[in-house]
Amino acid sequence: MADLTLYEQLAESIGIKGSGIIPEMFAMIADEDEAKFVLAAAPPGTVEEIAQKAGIPLEKAEKMVRPLFLKGLLFKSKKPGETRYYKIRNYVQFHDGTVLSPDIPEGYLALLREFEKTLVKDMQEGRDQAGYTPFMRVVPINVTVDAKTQVLAMDDVEKMIQEANVIAVTACSCRTIHPVTEVPLEVCMQLDKAAVYAIDRGTGRELTKEQAMEMLHMCEKEGLVHCVINTQSLGYMICNCDNQSCSNWPGDKKYAKTFAAPSRFLAVVDSENCSACDACIDRCYFYAISMGGKGDTAQVDEDRCMGCGLCAVTCPEDAITMKEVRKIETIPAG
Ligand code: SF4
Ligand code: SF4
């Protein structure tokens, strides 16, 4: 790390090596002392400890902490007692956190769009994927499932809302980076500690459970797909994703499973009930449905289906059900 600039060190510390763009973006939002302070905040420490490690006078460091927190570069430690801080840890935090800062510099989002083009190309071509586990997973809309299927709490966004103590909504970071006017912007739901963080930072608006449920149903009506953190435990975020801007499936949708994990479910068409109306084909983001089924009815491509359930809620004949095809063990324990 010794030969790298402070900003290159920051980029490497969030897992991005060899990029000219990410160091340039860090330089846009942090001066050199701020960069030193952020780098020194690993492991977590008090302001005094981090300032000493970074060689920055305590008085100056105390003034830097709140702005760095608001920029999404510094986080508060979850441990009770004395407030401790730790640095931004990964690209997801960089993507989701820094773009929602109120004082984002001009040109910042354009650089991120440029960086994402390279990242997407690399991943689609199969580079840099050793050991890669998708960070997000699709969760089906609350649709009809077949009789043998068990819907677990981690598959159920309504259950996640009911279990949460604090709920907040923020703007969608993907639609902030890639503006889409046809669908709502403020639909990214944060739960518990993530909600407290968003409210404290001023990027989140607190919701009651009733407001959160209404928002979920509004998203379903808008044809947005629910995504959660890809673990077996109830996560801290519910994304409501569109098919144009979302970083969970950027670019060509045939590569969607490269970036996000499918849900545990697969759409299955009952050809006896299908009237071949095409509504499900129009609704599916992932080009997973064709009219290749028995008697020219709808048919689902198992390799492409992400298990979102949008087709099932759209079908006027109730001809589509969601069938469990992946056991809980296939989801990372978290
Ligand atoms: S076929 Fe398409 S719309 Fe239906 S569940 Fe699969 S991915 Fe979703
Ligand atoms: S929406 Fe339903 S009825 Fe229409 S083509 Fe799809 S499965 Fe068949």
Describe this structure in words.
With 334 residues, this protein is an alpha+beta fold. The strands form 4 sheets. The chain has a 6-stranded antiparallel β-sheet with strand order 3-7-8-5-4-6, with helices on both faces. The chain has helices at 6-13, 21-29, 32-40, 47-54, 58-70, 91-98, 108-124, 157-163, 173-177, 193-201, 209-221, 256-259, 279-283, 310-314; strands at residues 74-76, 85-87, 136-139, 167-170, 188-191, 204-207, 225-229, 237-241, 265-269, 289-290, 299-300, 320-324. Helix 1 (6-13) runs parallel beside helix 3 (32-40), helix 4 (47-54) crosses helix 5 (58-70) and helix 8 (157-163) packs antiparallel against helix 11 (209-221). The protein is elongated and about 75 Å long. The model has no long low-confidence stretch (mean pLDDT 89). The protein has 2 domains: 6-124, Winged helix-like DNA-binding domain superfamily/Winged helix DNA-binding domain (Arc Repressor Mutant, subunit A, Orthogonal Bundle), CATH 1.10.10; 136-330, 2-Layer Sandwich (Alpha-Beta Plaits), CATH 3.30.70.20. It is built from 14 helices and 12 strands. One iron/sulfur cluster binds at residues 267, 283-284, 286, 288-289, 300, 305-311.
